[in-house]
Amino acid sequence: MGITTNFLIDVLSFTKATNLFETIVGVTVAKPDFQPLAKEVVQECSGLPIAITIAIARVAHALKEESLPAWKDALLQLKRSSQTNIEGMSEKVYSSIKLSYDFLGSEEAKILLLLCSLHEEDANIFIEKLLRYSLVGACLKISTQLKRQET
């Protein structure tokens, strides 16, 4: 892309991180039962805007109508995520991305995300190619299942 300047994006203060959380989640966070949990999620993301945005946006969407125990489970998953050996990746960013991935609705959605991630940033991704890749993947899965049944 020809960009040669890097910009440092600092961590958010706890207040700003909480405001970002509240903006993304909306009304749910106003409920008294959710407020301590909201603070804990914000602390777990260490004020990193990308961690807050990825983790909270995805989880908030998935759990929009869910109960407090479902939110507590999501927080527990966020805390349990452990980083793999990815150079330069913050543990908090990794755990938020992993949580977001884990909350995708189906295996098909996960596969689609992984297929899209094979393309360069801002690349035009042709739906026809994704469809072909998905069909090939489905055929391989069926073939594997048939081979298992034969043995």
From TrEMBL:
It comes from Trema orientale. The keyword Nucleotide-binding applies. This is NB-ARC domain containing protein. GO terms for biological process: defense response. GO terms for molecular function: ADP binding; ATP binding. The keyword Glycoprotein does not apply. It comes from the Eukaryota. InterPro entries: Apaf_helical, P-loop_NTPase, Plant_NBS-LRR. Keywords: Nucleotide-binding, Plant defense.
